[in-house]
Amino acid sequence: MSKRMGIVVTGVSGRMGRMLVETIAASEQTQLVGAIERAGHEWIGRDLGDAMGGAATGVSVTDDMAAALEGADVVIDFTAPVATLKVAEAAALTGVAHVIGTTGMTAEEIARLSGPAERTAIVRAGNMSLGVNLLVQLTKRVAAALDDDYDIEVIEAHHNQKIDAPSGTALMLGEAAAEGRGVALDAVADRVRDGITGARRRGHIGFSAIRGGDIIGEHDVMFAAAGERIVLRHLASDRSVFARGAIKAALWTAGKPPGQYDMLDVLGLSGQ
């Protein structure tokens, strides 16, 4: 790439927003060209570097999405579903590619991305970690190899400030397991257990969520049968793995036609 890719970050004051800003600055292939925050945020109008407690960057924080996206190549978005849909529409209008790491989106909200995806490239993943996306592929293959004698349980742990459960990553893993078995996840998912639930239903995929402290992200997929268990695991010890994955996805969008993509496309594993 002859010039650095111009990237806009939404939600720059959040943990992921700050990490993305730092990762973009450290890369020789990218540069930060815009910083977006919600209307009324105390950072609006300030130089981003100053707001973050560092040296000036020359990029001012704004709530004017159209202005921030002007001249950019990609916008990276780890915010909330309602905000993400607004970013998707703005990005489509300007032809800016959109990398989405937002979790907690409903099926209806995800479906609403189809319109913007007709006008620009959208890469969406419940987890941008390269390791997690390899785990997704392993989960699908193991689920396809084992029959319903093996109960599948997706166990995830996150920090005490996470607002959605199961995590987007857990749902990705559940979808992979269901795909491996040739079933629809909605038809076999056990997402809540409380009280007298009765015996586990054969062939169902369970989810268990743990929230506590500053856990960044831990995911296990357990295949449990009489006499043995197989456990596939991914542990994130540094939030930068998600930022690095998002930057890889952003760079991958260069020259890509409009459409909806995921990290398996980015990694060249789609369809495998």
UniProtKB/TrEMBL annotation:
Subcellular localization(s) per the UniProt record: Cytoplasm
GO cellular-component term (any): cytosol
InterPro entries according to UniProt: DapB_C (IPR022663), DapB_N (IPR000846), DapB_N_CS (IPR022664), DHDPR_bac (IPR023940)
GO biological process: diaminopimelate biosynthetic process; lysine biosynthetic process via diaminopimelate
Catalytic reaction(s) noted: (S)-2,3,4,5-tetrahydrodipicolinate + NADP(+) + H2O = (2S,4S)-4-hydroxy-2,3,4,5-tetrahydrodipicolinate + NADPH + H(+); (S)-2,3,4,5-tetrahydrodipicolinate + NAD(+) + H2O = (2S,4S)-4-hydroxy-2,3,4,5-tetrahydrodipicolinate + NADH + H(+)
Annotated active site: 158 (proton donor/acceptor), 162 (proton donor)
Pathway noted in the entry: Amino-acid biosynthesis; L-lysine biosynthesis via DAP pathway; (S)-tetrahydrodipicolinate from L-aspartate: step 4/4
Domain Dihydrodipicolinate reductase N-terminal: 5-128
Ranges of residues in domain Dihydrodipicolinate reductase C-terminal: 131-267
Record key words, sorted: Amino-acid biosynthesis, Cytoplasm, Diaminopimelate biosynthesis, Lysine biosynthesis, NAD, NADP, Oxidoreductase
Residues the record lists as binding NAD(+): 11-16, 37, 101-103, 125-128
Keyword Secreted in record: no
EC number: 1.17.1.8
Function, as annotated: Catalyzes the conversion of 4-hydroxy-tetrahydrodipicolinate (HTPA) to tetrahydrodipicolinate.
Protein's recorded name: 4-hydroxy-tetrahydrodipicolinate reductase
Organism in which the protein naturally occurs: Roseobacter insulae
Gene responsible for this protein: dapB
